[in-house]
Amino acid sequence: MEALEASILESIPHAVIGLQDRRIIFVNNGVKTVFGWTSDELIGRTTRLFYRSGKDYIRIAGELYSILEKQPIASMEFPCLRKDGTKIECMINAARIGQQLKEKRVVITYENITDRKRAAQELEFSRHQLRQLSAHLQSIREKERARIARELHDELGQLVTALNTDIVLLKNKIPAGQKILLDRVESMSSLVGLTMETVKRIYMGLRPGMLDHLGLTAAIAWQAEEFFRRTGIACDVSFSPEDMAIDPDLTTTIFRIFQETLTNVQRHAQATKVTVHLTAMDDQLELVVKDNGKGISDEQLRKPDSFGLMGIKERVYHWGGKEAIVGKIGKGTTITIRIPLLKTGETS
Q: Are 73 and 93 in contact (CB under 8 A)?
């Protein structure tokens, strides 16, 4: 049995040590792998050798023994030190020997998690960079959309308006008996009118001018009316307060999120009604969009190609906000967005 226990102990890849009165009484071969020390070098000594300073040694000993006085097992991450001076991070698991902590008899395992923590940090840094890049690309896209919309309105819109004016003047110059010419001019006027409507639809779709001139609530109310006109799905909106002074970039974010929620309703919800509440409080902005459709399922929420929902989450994350998407089968879906508002004098 002792041979079996010894084999089990040596097969553990982590450092395992036994302590009595804070002195090492046994170690396994994993200590050599984790810390670079041999059994002969450690027996009878303290675990001060494993830590970066005396202060760290006192702190970890105090915390571990304090926990083991109350419960049989203790776990924590802690910075450690190899024999050659290399700094490592370890997951420390300690268990008292017996029902009570007598003579401070404990078994401690040290798992070197340095590479794991470094990989996790690199992954988090990479994720942060990707999110920053996504936000940057969204910002560039919004600026480009605004520029194109402005040029369509100011340049092409004015040219088409001037052309329409000339057609009206030309029509007034044609004698009443020239029916063929009058019909041709009337057809030209209709085409120009259709072109003006198309140009307006395009630049309003790129970026509604009222978003910059009249604000978020006016833009959302307009979008809701457009949604009803295009889909036949009723969209009731309410605001509290009616006028909101919000950061221009945040205004764009909320408007784009609202557009995406309506797109999802149109494509997937099979709804007949959408209710929208936008509330500006002292410390946060809340947008709630609820439909009476079939309700989104947990499986749909987890789909990796749900780019619309993914875009909503990334926009909210960029502003330090939170989103909640809740679906009830047969009763609809509710999307709640909460984004903190900066107080006067604060900067993002």
A: yes
Q: Copy the structure tokens of residue 253.
A: 């974010």
pLDDT of residue 99: 78
What residue ranges of the chain have pLDDT lower than 70? 1-11, 343-348
Q: How far apart are the first and last CA of the chain?
A: 65
- Domain count of the chain? 3
Torsion (CA) 141, 147, 148, 149 in degrees, nearest 10: 100
> Which of 339, 333, 244, 252 lies closest to 287 in space, CA to CA?
339
pLDDT at position 10 is 65
Taking the model in full, what pTM does it have? 0.62
Long-range CB pairs of 204-207 (<8 Å, 24+ gap) are: 204/149, 206/145, 206/146, 206/148, 206/149, 206/152, 207/142, 207/145, 207/146, 207/149
pLDDT value, residue 344: 46
Question: Do residues 234 and 266 both lie within one domain?
Answer: yes
Whether the Cβ atoms of residue 86 and residue 95 lie closer than 8 Å to each other = no
Q: In which domain, by residue range, is 151 found?
A: 115-207
At residue 201, the pLDDT reads: 80
- Structure tokens of 203? 């630049």
